[in-house]
Every structure is written in structure tokens, then in C-alpha cells.
From TrEMBL:
Protein name: Putative gluconeogenesis factor
Organism: Streptococcus ferus
InterPro entries with a match to the protein in the record: CofD, CofD-like_dom_sf, Gluconeogen_factor
CDD domains named in the record: CofD_YvcK
Subcellular location: Cytoplasm
Length: 324
């Protein structure tokens, strides 16, 4: 039988959890990764070289590679804060940035690195140019830059992206639209709603492809609300925002975790951006999506609440089998 073709869209630390589990299954995997990060090492490198930020791509590359643990530790090594101009930069970010400059684009760099690290599947930046994320808040204030959004108090109404270094309309990377249109399933998230998932979807070509594709579109809802983004959000609120940004109910299935995070479990020093567990609104979800899958998708580790990649992957593959 033909391998199911699954495309994962997002960024941050969310989608690598799913990709790492999915690469062990019989599936044709594509990752489409946000390029709107303007903070930390990624922001510094993109400003210096005017290239797409490498951080989210680095994490996805590691998740989809069979590189030995020692190679991963080298690739993920972050220079000490006392290391001058290199302070805070992961070695992998420097490698991606260097090859991107050498090859003329991050798109080409990821093709080379995918072969070098024996990646299972394909990795594409959502755009071949760095993007700037804009957030319009309900109070009418506009905040520019992903790293600045959480600093503004208030509720976000909508987001959009612009090319950072020219006035052209943001465009999807080569192959991205084709991958979405040819997929059996497109998975959104998990990840920060406004800063990891939507920066990809509001690229016009990607949004249009998601509304037109015959693939089943699944959204993996976050477990925790996020400071400065989704405070007091229910699971239905997350889906409502996604549908509203694309102007139609394009999501077919939403996966929600129903396992409780133990009280006082979260390490607030390490995970200070996450607030409380996302509350459920199943009546609201039924108005937004045809199908809701609720199960125990929770993994507790090192004082944080994460998705269990194996459990999510198993459910996604079950959804594809039913569809076939």
C-alpha cells in the first residue's frame, strides 16, 4: 500500500514532538516551518545576514533525523553567555545560516542538511524570505515582531505577515503548496497559536491551499494556555481563531487532550509563559469542526506538560485509515 502523505505545519518546540514519533512510522512526511521568529539567536542571525531565521528549522531537522545522540548534542550546543559575539547562539543555527548564505537560500540549505543528517521526509521553510509578524490587538494597537507580541497586555484580534526586507507580498516556498495539495492529511500544531501556527497560514498561498486541498486538515490543540497569546482560551477558542483567519471552517478534525495536569506540577521558573490548562468547550467545538477526538495525549516531563508524540501519531494514523 502507498504510504500516507502527511504534512505538518508549525514551529517552536511543538511540532518536533510529533515529527520525532511520526518518522518511525510508515508515512511520507513533510514539515513546513515558520520563518517569522525575530528573537534570540534566530533574530540576531536574520538581522545580520537578512536570511530566514534558523531556530525552528534546526529543531525540526533534529526531530526528523536519525543522527546519533552525540551529533545532536553538538548540533544543539549553545554558546555560553560569556562567549562574546557567539553568546547564546546554538551551533546548529550558525551552520544553517552559513549554508543558507553559501547556497543563496534557506530552502537550498535545508535540502543539503536533510541529506547530510539522513532526515526522514522533507523540510521546507514556509517562505524563502524572512517574515515579520504583525499582531492587531482588540484595543486597536498594532505590535510588530513576534518577540514583542507577548509584551503587550490585551487580547489579540488577528495577525498578518509582511516580508521583512522588501515590499513584496509574502509567498510560500517552492513545493509548499504542492505538498499541501497532494497530502492525505495536513496537521497544524501543536504550538503557539499566534506565533508558531498562524504565521504560516496567513501567507496567502498557504491559506488558499489549506482551504482548497482534499486532504484531511487536523489541528492538535495546545494543552496549556500561553501568556500574551491565549490567556483564558478554551479549545474552541483556538479553533475559532484559526477558522476566522482563513475566512472559513477549513479544519476537519481537532485533537484535544483530556488528561489533567496535576495541580502545582508545572515548573513556573522554567515554563513561565504557560499559564493554566486549556479548558474544554465541546459544544463550541462542534460548531467549528465536524470531528473532535478527545483522549489522553499528555506527557509530563521535567516540570512541563507536553504532547505525547506517540499517542498523537497513533491517532493521526487511525484518522487516515478510516478516511481511506
Amino acid at each position: 500500500m502507498r504510504k500516507p502523505k502527511i504534512t505538518i505545519i508549525g514551529g517552536g518546540t511543538g511540532i518536533p514532538v510529533i515529527l520525532n514519533s511520526l518518522r518511525h512510522e510508515e508515512a511520507d512526511i513533510t514539515a513546513i516551518v515558520t520563518v517569522a521568529d525575530d528573537g534570540g539567536s534566530s533574530g540576531a542571525l536574520r538581522n545580520a545576514l537578512q536570511l530566514t531565521p534558523p531556530g525552528d528549522l534546526r529543531n525540526v531537522l533534529v526531530a526528523m533525523s536519525d543522527m546519533p545522540k552525540f551529533y545532536e548534542e553538538i548540533f544543539q550546543y549553545r554558546f555560553e553567555q560569556s562567549d562574546g559575539a557567539l553568546a547564546g547562539h546554538p551551533l546548529g543555527n550558525l551552520i544553517i545560516a552559513g549554508i543558507s548564505e553559501m547556497q543563496g537560500s534557506t530552502y537550498n540549505a535545508m535540502r543539503i542538511l536533510s541529506k547530510f543528517f539522513h532526515v526522514t521526509g522533507k523540510i521546507y521553510p514556509s517562505s524563502e524570505k524572512a517574515l515579520t509578524l504583525h499582531a492587531i490587538f482588540q484595543d486597536g494597537c498594532e505590535v510588530v515582531g513576534e518577540s514583542q507580541i507577548a509584551k503587550h497586555k490585551g487580547m489579540i484580534d488577528r495577525v498578518y505577515v509582511t516580508n521583512t526586507y522588501d515590499q513584496e507580498i509574502p509567498k510560500a516556498s517552492r513545493k509548499v503548496v504542492e505538498e499541501i495539495m497532494e497530502s492525505d492529511m495536513v496537521v497544524l500544531g501543536p504550538g503557539s497559536l499566534f506565533t508558531s501556527i498562524l504565521p504560516n497560514l496567513v501567507i496567502p498561498e498557504i491559506g488558499e491551499a489549506l482551504c482548497q486541498t482534499k486532504a484531511q486538515v487536523a489541528y492538535v490543540c495546545n494543552i496549556m494556555t500561553q501568556y500574551g497569546e491565549t490567556e483564558r482560551f478554551t479549545d474552541a477558542d483556538h479553533v475559532r481563531v484559526l477558522n476566522r483567519h482563513l475566512g472559513e471552517r477549513f479544519i476537519d478534525t481537532v485533537l484535544v487532550n483530556i488528561e489533567k495536569v496535576p495541580k502545582d506540577y508545572m515548573d513556573r521558573n522554567q515554563f513561565d509563559e504557560y499559564l493554566v490548562q486549556v479548558e474544554h468547550d465541546f459544544a463550541g467545538l462542534k460548531k467549528e469542526v465536524p470531528k473532535v477526538v478527545s483522549a489522553n495525549f499528555l506527557r509530563l516531563e521535567n516540570g512541563g506538560a507536553f504532547h505525547n508524540g506517540d499517542s498523537v501519531t497513533e491517532e493521526l494514523l487511525n484518522l487516515i485509515r478510516v478516511q481511506q
